[in-house]
Design brief:
Length: 360
Amino acid sequence: MSETPPSPDRLIIRRPDDWHVHLRDGEMLRAVLGHTARQFGRAIVMPNLSPPVTTVARAISYRDRIIAALDPGAAFEPLMTCYLTNETDPDEIERGFKDKVFAACKLYPAHATTNSEHGVTDIRNIHSVLERMQRIGMPLLLHGEVTDSAIDIFDREAVFIERVFSRIAADFPALKTVFEHITTADAAAFVESSGPNVAATITPHHLRINRNAMFEGGIRPHFYCLPVAKRERHRLALRRAATSGSPKFFLGTDSAPHAIGRKEAACGCAGIFNAPFAIESYAATFDEEGALGRLEAFASEHGPNFYGLPQNTDRILLERGSCAAPERIKAGAEELVPFHAGETLPWRFAGKAGGSSEPA
Ligand code: DOR
Ligand code: ZN
């Protein structure tokens, strides 16, 4: 007998974490951080600054700047990552991991995306680093796209599995690996069929848009990110993976703010700023899929379990009700266009559960 339980109007879940976010630096950091810290207990902070976070000293200094930018009393823990280059020293990453500065290393194939020019040009250049990471249990976070200009941009993730990921998996079978921001049915299937040491993050936007969004009635730069959104069948596969209850899939927003003028330009930057309404966006998707009961596991349990970290103990409240996203959000002297700009979402974040509600 299968009966769909009635969809609730209030949802209390363990505080979620964001396992993939770009917080930037300076004035932009101060402008965007509150949106992430309001909802999430922790976040894996991407290291693609300029210059990138390649050493323990740089990570400590960046972490200090993030903590200094938090509102007083905010309970938020940034988890730092090391940007891998052809020259990364295995001893440096081991020291950072053992000292609890680095939670993971991030592999950007050189020229795959924003500030990736110092990234790895060939996986063979970091064999000793991957060997060390496998030995000490340090997770590898992959931007999974090849950069070969002969490969169609919509195929770059699938070809990455074939050319790179399958080799990493064969050479380092016990390496903990997160396939970041997956966008294809191929990636979801690869992760599903791999061992428990391989997982993936899924963004709010790849669950909601397909590649048409970038071209609806004209060019739509605010829907351009990397990896780029794919065909509808891929979006549907991602929705199935995220809501499946599999511990291999967890929340990672890939919120990537770029000032409006850098998006609406002749050569616009890749990235979707989804931090302001991230948990609301996931809640809407899970609700549409009849899977609200699985939101907590995806948002708050699978990530810490994979990383070997404790789950958050506090809880947040989500309420059914109108949540209007503005067209623009101020960021110091700049402006940002958030994901869902101008839309009204059916769920809203209502603060800490049990305590006094923070303003949403
Ligand atoms: O769209 C993206 N923006 N994808 C990335 O991989 C990087 C990010 C950014 O830093 O702007
Ligand atoms: Zn990213």
